[in-house]
Amino acid sequence: MSDGNEISKKLQGMTLFTEFTDDEIQAFLELADKLTVKAGEAIVKQDEHGDCMYVLISGKASVIHRKEGKQFELATLGTGDFFGEIALVDEGPRSADVEAMEDCTLVRIPQSVIRALAGVYPMAAFKLLVAVGRVLVSRLRKGNQKYIDSLLLASGGKD
Predict the structure, then answer these.
(1) What DSSP state is assigned to residue 99?
(2) Phi, psi at residue 138, to the nearest 5°?
(3) Can you tell me the distance from the alpha carbon of 137 to that of 18, in angstroms, rounded to the nearest whole number?
């Protein structure tokens, strides 16, 4: 797996961590879990209890929802993408599988890391949560637009 300095440099270039200072990045990395997953392995499984989010440091992963014997690929994730963030506020079941398409290096961020980071570097925890919120709002806007477009298509585009 990549050494701490390499992961630190990669994090600083990612949306979630662009506003972090070097000290905040180091504190975050000391608290978070770094892991590797081989191609073809599951990172998270649909319907399992969620208690953390993940940031993809390197590699590619596929987000797959399964229902009634069918599977739907929802997204392909790459370096800098994150998933599982809903588990930071809601410990409900995972909404999809995330599988490694190639060997992946990830940072696992449980709720406890956010709390610990807030105790040492409160601004870093704030910056991280705001960055996650911004990405979620962007995703929600895109989803809303797709929904509106599908309604317009179904109605024949009439007012």
Answers:
(1) E
(2) -60, -45
(3) 18
Which residue type sits at 67?
Answer: K
User: Under a CB-based contact definition with an 8 Å cutoff, are residues 100 and 43 in contact?
Assistant: yes
| Other C-beta atoms lying within 10 Å of the C-beta of residue 107 | 25
| Structure-token pair, residue 106 | 């990830």
Per-residue pLDDT tens digits for 106-153: 999 999 999 999 998 999 999 998 888 888 888 889 888 888 888 888
Three-state SS for 46-94 is: CCCECCEEEEEEECCEEEEEEECCEEEEEEEECCCCEECHHHHCCCCEC
Task: Spell out the domain ranges in the chain.
Answer: 4-111+120-154
Q: Name the CATH superfamily housing domain 4-111+120-154.
A: Jelly Rolls (2.60.120.10)
* Alpha carbons 31 and 58: distance in angstroms, whole number: 19
pTM over 0.90: no
Nearest to 114 by CA among 24, 34, 49, 37: 24
Mean pLDDT of the chain: 90
Q: What percent of the chain has pLDDT over 70?
A: 96
